[in-house]
Amino acid sequence: MPEEQKNYTASTGVDEFYYGVLADSGTAIMLAGEDIEKVEFPQTIGIEMPQEIVKAYGGNKIAEMAVSAGDTTVTSAFHKIPTEDKKKLLGLEAKNGITAMGAEDNPPYVAVIFAKTYQSGRKEWVACLKGIFTRPNINAQTKGESVEFNPEEINAQFMDRELEGFDKLKSVATAEDAAGETKNRDALFMATFGKPFPGTTPPAGGVEG
After folding, report:
1. Of 104, 121, 129, 149, whose CA–CA distance to 189 is shortest?
2. Which DSSP letter does residue 79 get?
3. Which ranges constitute the DSSP H helices of the chain?
4. What are the residue ranges in the chain where pLDDT is below 70?
5. Which of 13, 164, 186, 178 is nearest to 113 (CA)?
6. pLDDT at position 147
7. 108 with 94: CB under 8 angstroms?
8. Is-cis flag, bond preceding 151, omega within 30?
9. pLDDT tens digit sequence for 1-38
10. At residue 95, what are phi and psi to the nearest 5 degrees?
11. CB distance 40 to 19 below 8 Å
């Protein structure tokens, strides 16, 4: 069997940020009636998955080592996060054209998927499987001699959950497609949301039209 060719090209951009509100369970099922939502114009997305090596000592030497995993944290910056998406992601209350935030806000569990893009057209899809977003800061500054845009940043923490096809609980999953292909993207959307990529129907996949 020929050895699979390794790919050493680095990503050059980020695109296509999707999220879905999950049912309060360990599975990939979204709430009934909820759609997979898209937020346009992501700028930066960072995922921190810290690990610490824990050591046990005996007889004046290391007897055993194990890995302890910390919280999975996601930091995302967008050109603008629409109010409609903030309401869903943060569980905000809105009445009479007013959107309000308070101590009793109850953000839902969500899953998110975004794409790292490459010059060749290849895409690496990254899924964060079950987490909660926290309220972004509100910032503003005076307009000077030149126009400057103020991006919005929002943070979240993610936990492990069941992922179809895997024996152990997972918090992050990835899938890569060559230019023009969507097979692995579609498999990741089904495993993460329990629904196909927006605009397709299962079984989905193959080549982008």
Report:
1. 129
2. S
3. 83-90, 183-193
4. 1-4, 24-29, 32, 203-209
5. 186
6. 79
7. no
8. no
9. 555 677 777 888 998 999 999 986 555 567 767 899 99
10. -145, 140
11. no
